[in-house]
Amino acid sequence: MPTLILVRHGRSTANTAGVLAGRTPGVELDERGTEQAAALPGRLAALPLVAAVSSPLQRCHQTLQPLLDARPGLPLHTEERISECDYGDWAGRKLAELVDEPLMTVVQQHPSAAAFPGGESMRAMQARAVDAVREWNARIEAEHGENAVYVMCSHGDIIKSLVADALGMHLDLFQRIHADPCSATAIRYTRLRPFLLRLGDTGDLAPLAPREPAPDSGAGTATKGGGEGNAAVGGGAGAP
Fold this sequence. Notes:
- Helix content is 32%, strand content 15%.
- The protein has seven helices and six strands; from the N terminus they run E-H-H-E-H-E-H-H-H-E-H-E-E.
- It has a six-stranded mixed sheet, sandwiched between helices.
- Helix 2 (31-43) packs parallel to helix 3 and helix 6 crosses helix 7.
- The chain is globular, with a radius of gyration of 18 Å.
């Protein structure tokens, strides 16, 4: 199955202001975020991307725009299910104010029980994002083959919840995961299990490019148990 490159949007005006943006309209990349987005095409230059998928929010489209400009033939798809969590009444509020809300402790310590007033639960957020990725994986594989690589631009909590799913972690542990603005997280999906190849990477992503199998390689790479999707002996699962 394909390799998914999850990119968190670049730093936004809400990040700088310490505001929980959620789906508040008009949140754009700040100067630093614009610089981060401009560097993204170079970081992804070695990857044969077949598609770009974006959250509908402006800051994600802005993050991908330099990449689209650099690759005119790269199709862009907007996916509602990877939009930011619906924080409901919390959206647009200062994070410093929210610290004293009793719900914030639940969000941090027991997120599977957290539901935002006037918004959605964190369980629902993860479920829709996971469903979206599984469906996009199937679509990308059907159209471009099992070694295809595609990029998806989304938000911090969405990316963390997808990583938790890939690692088989309960949602209550997902706050232990971190992804900086414009960082890249790579997940290689296989028939049996996903492999986390990068988490919150802000550097060069060239090593993630698919590799052609060596002639007559046969069983040259031993895998524990020999089954599809099993980690290669010595930790070789890091190679796509």
